[in-house]
Amino acid sequence: METIHKRLEQVRRNIGQVIFGQEQTVEQSLISILAGGHVLLIGVPGLAKTKLVDCLGRVLGLDTRRVQCTPDLMPADIIGSEVLEEGESGRRTFRFIPGPVFCQLLMADEINRASPRTQSALLQAMQEHRVSVAGQTHQLPQPFHVLATQNPLEQEGTYPLPEAQLDRFLLQIDVDYPALAAERQMLIVTTGSADQEPQAVMNGEELQKAQRIVRRIPVGDKVLDAILKMVRAGRSGEGELTDVTKHLAWGPGPRAGQALMLATRARALLQGRLSPSIDDVVALAHPVLRHRIALTYSARAEGVTLAAVIDKLVALLG
């Protein structure tokens, strides 16, 4: 475990040489990958979301592909399709041509610009790590992760992700502007004669080993009870916070608890600890829950925010 922690520290340092002022975003992205999950990155243009995904792929030594989502993108453009070929004997057969989803790290850029039909093509891949084409099932490479980006501005011509697909993302990471010192360093480094290129630290096999270690990290009863208390408090009729649940159209499901269990373990490993603590639950509550609960229309009209609701759930933990 100590060896894996040192490698992960080197991964963070290498990414930090290219991505400036986004330490929390980098940490949460690594947590999600270590936990075997997918990531939804939301932020305005110019915050290095695309560069972060490319950098993660290089440093972790993963086969990385990119799909630029547009309204005319078809499911076959992502998962692949079958073509009819004629051999020398004149016999015709179908041959499957894999799409860009057959990789270890798939970047779906501006995923909300793809049509619902195309978005749904990713559902099976994200959940089952396989795709079905013409009645045949094709396994995806391992490990497999989807890192999708979304622009909160310019909502014209976009298709909001359905709740079923949002729930497949382990974390929703809201990418913010960098601090002054980090932005100053970024301006100096990125406008010079040569950009810093990230160097590979791990490979897919080593990453899978780290993911297996994450699942073996023990979780104490206090942490488990904290996760259950917070998740169930967000459901109508189950929690003690009726002033919170009345504002929610729906609350977090069981997958939210599973995400917190895995993410807290991954955070402990990333920080070199033998087991997660309640502080890990508090730190990861927002990225785990913000896309798994929804406000009612009346709550939004009253100015209630998701962040405020999650803060009240976190406050239950003391």
UniProtKB/TrEMBL annotation:
InterPro entries according to UniProt: ATPase_AAA-3, CbbQ/NirQ/NorQ/GpvN, ChlI/MoxR_AAA_lid, P-loop_NTPase
Span of domain ChlI/MoxR AAA lid: 242-312
ATPase AAA-3 domain residues: 38-171
Domain of life according to the entry: Bacteria
PANTHER family in the cross-refs: MAGNESIUM-CHELATASE SUBUNIT CHLD (PTHR42759:SF1), MOXR FAMILY PROTEIN (PTHR42759)
UniProt name for this protein: MoxR family ATPase
